[in-house]
Design a protein that fits this description.
The chain is 42% helix and 16% strand. The protein has twelve helices and 13 strands. It has helices at 11-22, 34-39, 56-62, 84-104, 141-158, 182-189, 206-215, 235-246, 257-274, 282-288, 297-302, 310-323, and strands at 2-6, 26-31, 46-50, 68-71, 108-112, 163-168, 170-172, 195-196, 200-205, 225-228, 231-234, 253-254, 291-292. The strands form three sheets. Strands 3-2-1-4-5-6-10 form a seven-stranded parallel sheet, sandwiched between helices. Strands 7, 9, 11 and 13 form a four-stranded mixed sheet that branches. It has a two-stranded parallel sheet with strand order 8-12. It is globular, with a radius of gyration of 19 Å. It starts with a strand and ends in a 7-residue tail after the last helix.
């Protein structure tokens, strides 16, 4: 069975690739960047395909000979808050892959969305796949376009297309080549986080998310969403875990929502004046003041998703950064 994999160079995609090869799937890996593809040029265990998911013709060519599509590519940008590029990549890219999949009679397509396209809850009553979405209040194009792409996939599934959606929470682990979520680990390590916001989120070991996604080739139900998550932690709890593992002092004080949003507001002004992306914008700051808590019970039950402790995820992430010379990355 041959899998067409997008987002291969990202944190999740690289771990999905490892899991696919471990199980002896044939893989055709999509790369948009020639340098990323070049890094894999000596591999004989995958077929490289250079292209862009916004190119419908290229995607029809790419999926030829494939049985399954795992679509992990995305524009995860949060600055600017909205951009036509988010629509092109996250929405049109998904449509292009669906149409390409129809043309070759794909057996299953697994689209990677985000838990933020669903509704979050509290630690006591975490959000699940049926919780009404709450992302509209943040006015962030990433969340909006991922939700729209998700809805398109689910509608296609209602009409018989073998598509399903997975919704990872905040993933941590090794192989974070362009540091994404691992930036949080590095920021705590370099003591760049003076305090903690009042909110929190759900965390998952990226290897568990990758395992669930590859399991979904055979398990799960088309037309369904599956939250891929594990531990619900406040930012104080998460930063303390990270600090204890990497060997530094954790941030000591809570930052009130008013101060968090004020700092984010200054970031927005900076971004608008300079054209450079701020580390935190007002809209990002609003997100950090809320508790984005979820349950992955459905994925554990139906996709046999493991639940590796987040301490392990942090430890492996930090070890990978150390082994690969990322500890000076700022």
């Amino acid at each position: 069975m041959t899998v067409f994999l997008t987002g291969t160079s990202g944190l999740l995609g690289s771990n999905v690739l490892i899991e696919l090869l471990k199980r002896n799937y044939a893989v055709k890996a999509l790369f948009r960047d020639k340098q990323d593809a070049h890094r894999h040029r000596h591999r004989e265990d995958i077929e490289l395909f250079l292209g862009d998911i916004t190119d419908a013709r290229a995607m029809k060519q790419g999926v030829k000979g494939c049985d399954v599509i795992i679509h992990a590519a995305a524009d995860t940008g949060l600055w600017p808050a909205r951009s036509p590029e988010y629509v092109a990549t996250n929405v049109q890219g998904t449509i292009n892959l669906i149409e390409a999949g129809k043309k070759v009679g794909i057996k299953r397509m697994i689209a990677v969305s985000t838990a933020n396209a669903l509704g979050f809850g509290t630690k006591e009553q975490p959000g699940d796949e049926s919780t009404p979405p709450k992302f509209k209040q943040y006015e962030l194009g990433y969340m909006e376009t991922k939700h729209l792409a998700q809805e398109i996939m689910l509608k296609e599934a209602q009409n018989g297309f073998p598509g399903m959606v997975v919704n990872p929470t905040f993933m941590i682990g090794p192989n974070d080549h362009k540091p994404s979520s691992g930036q949080m680990v590095l920021a705590v390590y370099h003591r760049k986080i003076p305090g903690y916001p009042t909110g929190g989120k759900n965390y998952v070991y990226v290897g568990d998310a990758a395992t669930a996604i590859v399991n979904a080739i055979e398990l799960g139900t088309p037309g369904e969403c599956y939250i891929l998550g594990n531990e619900n932690l406040s930012y104080q709890e998460a930063f303390t875990k990270i600090a204890n593992i990497v060997g530094v002092e954790p941030p000591k004080f809570a930052i009130p929502p008013s101060l968090t949003k004020a700092f984010g507001g200054l970031g927005t002004v900076y971004g608008n004046l300079t054209g450079f992306a701020p580390k935190v914008s007002y809209k990002m700051a609003r997100v950090s003041c809320d508790g984005h808590y979820f349950t992955a019970a459905k994925a554990v039950r139906e996709l046999n998703m493991p639940q590796t402790p987040i301490d392990t995820a942090i430890r492996e992430c930090f070890a990978w950064f150390k082994e690969n010379g990322y500890l000076d990355w700022r």
